[in-house]
């Protein structure tokens, strides 16, 4: 039982520490390339990599990404 508690605690702390380095950012532009360029610039400025999680278009493109270090 003690081993199970220890494994659970380690797993929980791993998830918390990973989540603390993630940051969500958004960008708006007239094209997909323009919105991604804004996301890429923000990631470069923060010294992070990015993963696009959502993109919508209409009159403008709205893009959301997660930055991770």
UniProtKB/TrEMBL annotation:
Which keywords belong to this entry? Signal
What Gene3D superfamilies does the entry give?
Flavin-binding protein dodecin (3.30.1660.10)
The record ties this protein, via SUPFAM superfamilies, to: YdgH-like
Q: Where is the signal peptide?
A: 1-22
Residue ranges annotated for the YdgH/BhsA/McbA-like domain, each copy included: 24-67
Q: List the Pfam families hit by this protein, alphabetically.
A: YdgH_BhsA-like
Protein name stated in the entry: Uncharacterized protein DUF1471
Which organism does this sequence originate in?
Mangrovibacter plantisponsor
Q: What is the lineage of its organism?
A: Bacteria, Pseudomonadati, Pseudomonadota, Gammaproteobacteria, Enterobacterales
């Amino acid at each position: 039982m003690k081993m199970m508690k220890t494994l659970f605690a380690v797993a929980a702390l791993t998830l918390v520490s990973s989540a603390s380095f993630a940051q969500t950012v958004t960008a708006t532009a007239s094209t997909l390339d323009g919105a991604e360029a804004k996301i890429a610039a923000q990631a470069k400025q923060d010294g992070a990599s990015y993963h696009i999680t959502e993109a919508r278009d209409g009159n403008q493109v709205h893009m959301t990404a997660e930055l991770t270090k």
